[in-house]
Specification:
148 residues; alpha+beta; seven-stranded mixed beta sheet; 30% helix
């Protein structure tokens, strides 16, 4: 897919990222949360995926020493099912490896079987449950890890 470009998120991307966030999650992050991450979090890296010049996805990554956590990842609903999420996730894993990350983790809703299936393709395995993790409905989160 030569029409796909992945790059670091810029300040001017936040409005489009907020729209993806709003369409993807029942408890979306705010504009202020993304601004704070980009401006003040020295551990954070955020990436956007452009498809034919339009931002269609994004992913956040925190790296502390040799551990990383995916903060969030989303693709616009109309662009799902085309392998874009996998391409974005793979790109972020490579970025993490290149920065010396040894372990990567994330939380995913226990009901989000589709995302769990994708993460398993990249070697992530269940490591535990965070009870009542999601504030919108108290759903549990499945913690998944992979050794890079």
């Amino acid at each position: 897919m030569s029409e796909v470009n992945i790059r670091h998120m810029r300040w001017e991307d936040i409005a489009e990222v907020i729209e993806i966030e709003r369409l993807s999650f029942s408890s979306p992050w705010t504009k202020q949360a993304f601004e704070k991450e980009i401006a003040n979090n020295m551990y954070a890296s955020y990436y956007v995926m452009e498809f034919r010049g339009k931002i269609v996805g994004y992913c956040g990554l925190w790296i502390v020493i040799d551990n990383a956590q995916i903060t969030n990842i989303a693709i616009l609903p109309n662009y799902r099912g085309k392998g874009l999420g996998e391409k974005l996730f793979q790109y972020v894993l490579v970025q993490a490896r290149n920065q010396g990350v040894e372990l990567l983790s994330l939380e995913v809703r226990v009901s989000n079987v589709r995302a769990q299936k994708m993460y398993r393709k990249f070697g992530l395995q269940p490591a535990g449950i965070r009870k009542n993790y999601y504030q919108d409905n108290n759903e549990d989160a499945l913690v998944m890890w992979v050794k890079l």
